[in-house]
Design goal:
Elements: E1 8-10, E2 15-17, E3 21-25, E4 30-34, E5 44-46, E6 60-62, E7 65-69, E8 75-78, E9 83-85, E10 88-91, E11 97-99, E12 108-115, E13 122-133, E14 136-148, E15 151-162, E16 168-174, E17 180-181, E18 187-188, E19 190-195
Antiparallel strand pairs: 1-2, 2-5, 3-4, 4-7, 5-6, 7-8, 8-11, 9-10, 10-12, 12-13, 13-14, 14-15, 15-16, 16-19, 17-18
């Protein structure tokens, strides 16, 4: 159809992209693909229509440039501002996403997770995140709690995931050695729980 964006497919990776303009680097044995549109949202990679896995299908994110390594068979995507999964916005620290030959994103290290997408009530940082599909991710990371007497406090959430309601949830254990205080007078040890649909944590 006239005006429709051209796309290129990566059958092995089960991904499609609108980044169709580029050149082959013989020395590095990689194919560089660049953006062809100045319209936001028109430069994307998406797993739509190339997989039978409904959880992975339609995972989509925007990028301005991609490199396909003929030897590694990885697709390295640059200038990725965010990846939206379930109710979360995941931001790669270096704005780079790597798609492995199996079609899944390689773990995002030192990423930031904000949930939910509308209110952004919760922020997890220095996170290692494994994206499994459009509605599924897991990982671990840090979460800032209120300062006590000017001392910063954070919670280590070691189990971040998406529940059956498509909501980000997380849990982590606070030990006595952490010296954690809920308030100036209340010392706490035990488990902390996050549900992105709620403003407050549970302890």
């Amino acid at each position: 159809k006239a005006g429709r964006l051209q796309t290129a497919d990566f059958p092995i990776h089960k991904f499609s992209t609108s980044l169709v303009q580029g050149e082959y680097n013989r020395a590095n044995r990689d194919l560089e693909l660049v953006q062809v549109s100045d319209i936001p949202g028109n430069n994307y990679l998406v797993s739509v229509g190339l997989t039978d896995d409904p959880m992975q299908d339609s995972l989509k994110f925007n990028g301005q440039k991609a490199y396909y390594g003929l030897d590694s068979m990885d697709i390295i995507v640059d200038s990725v501002r965010e990846v939206r999964v379930a109710d979360a916005i995941i931001t790669p620290v270096d704005k780079q996403v790597i798609i492995g030959r199996d079609g899944y994103l390689k773990p995002l290290v030192d990423a930031t997770v904000e949930a939910d997408q509308d209110d952004k009530l919760h922020k997890i940082y220095e996170a290692t995140i494994q994206v499994a599909g459009r509605n599924d991710y897991s990982g671990f990371g840090k979460y800032d709690y209120i300062e006590i007497d000017g001392q910063a406090q954070y919670i280590e959430f070691n189990d971040i995931k998406v529940n059956s309601q498509n909501t980000t949830v997380a849990s982590g254990e606070i030990t006595e050695e952490d010296g954690f205080y809920l308030t100036e007078r209340i010392f706490f040890r035990g488990n902390a729980f996050l549900d992105a649909s709620s403003k407050f944590l549970d302890f």
